[in-house]
Design brief:
about 280 residues; mainly beta; 6-stranded mixed beta sheet; elongated
């Protein structure tokens, strides 16, 4: 069932009554028994690469630490793209997750990243619309999970927002400088995003919803930026970010100002135009 994202987008176009909370691609279908994992060996034959599987609807995938006495160290690029996995556990021997390895896995809701993962390719977990939680081993020196979202170990790069979350507001950690490509793409619920003044780069399609089309009312409506207009103009914004550029942009002000400004009220971001 790979590469089915566009087909699902067409189907979703008819789902005008679907709410962002509890969106399910096909979760009521009967589970199908898992099949074998497919491997290939590295060029030097020192370890195994997982290149995909016959896993289907309702499957939890735990990538093993070894096969035939050799470690399993890598998930191939596009290896599980569009698969019907529901949960993923990467063992502590896995070091590399290839680009688009789990792209558009629409049923994937939980991901655990083991201690040795040091490289996660572009869009590895993008457009997984049910994904609501990342966890990362506390022994991992490269990545961490904060509030169920995936960051690098310094929290200066937002790798992937768990787009299946039901929250309508998200406050990015103030330490974040870079938001990776498609990090927030295809979030059904998110309406307001608060960006810290440290942000300097927003990757291509970071806030796009190209896989969720039709008449569903989804997407970012407001951007609350912690800096001023000069700081905003210094941010490099990649292409295909209409959800940001079309949103109403507000700048932070602790006191009332005329125009598009916001502040915190009881810990919640609100525009000065709101009651």
């Amino acid at each position: 069932m790979k590469k089915r994202g566009k087909i699902m987008a067409i189907v979703l176009g008819f789902a005008t009554a679907v709410s962002c909370v509890g969106f399910v691609a096909c979760n009521e279908m009967t589970s199908i028994v898992k099949e074998e994992i497919y491997y290939t060996q590295s060029a030097d034959k020192s370890y195994y690469i997982v290149k995909g599987s016959g896993w289907n609807k309702g499957s939890k995938l735990t990538v093993p630490e070894s096969k035939n006495d050799l470690p399993v160290k890598e998930i191939a690029a596009r290896g599980f793209e569009g698969e019907w996995l529901t949960e993923l556990v990467l063992s502590d021997t896995v070091e590399i997750v290839g680009e688009k390895a789990f792209y558009t896995c629409w049923d994937l809701s939980k991901v655990h990243i083991g201690s040795s993962v040091s490289q996660i390719g572009e869009l590895a977990f993008a457009s997984c619309v049910e994904l609501d939680e990342f966890t990362v081993s506390t022994d991992n020196a490269y990545y961490q999970a904060l509030d169920g979202n995936l960051y690098d170990i310094t929290a200066t790069t937002m790798v992937q927002y768990a787009v299946g979350k039901s929250a309508e507001t998200f406050v990015l950690p103030e330490t974040v400088v870079t938001i990776k490509s498609r990090a927030f793409a295809d979030s059904l619920c998110l309406k307001t995003v608060v960006l810290g003044g440290a942000v300097r780069e927003i990757g291509e399609g970071a806030f796009s919803n190209e896989n969720i089309s039709g008449e569903l009312e989804v997407g970012i409506e407001r951007i609350f930026y912690a800096g001023n207009s000069d700081g905003w103009n210094d941010i490099v914004i990649g292409e295909n970010n209409g959800r940001i550029t079309d949103s109403r942009l507000y700048f932070y002000s602790a006191s009332w100002k005329s125009g598009n400004y916001w502040r915190y009220v009881d810990g919640e971001p609100k525009s000065w135009n709101e009651d």
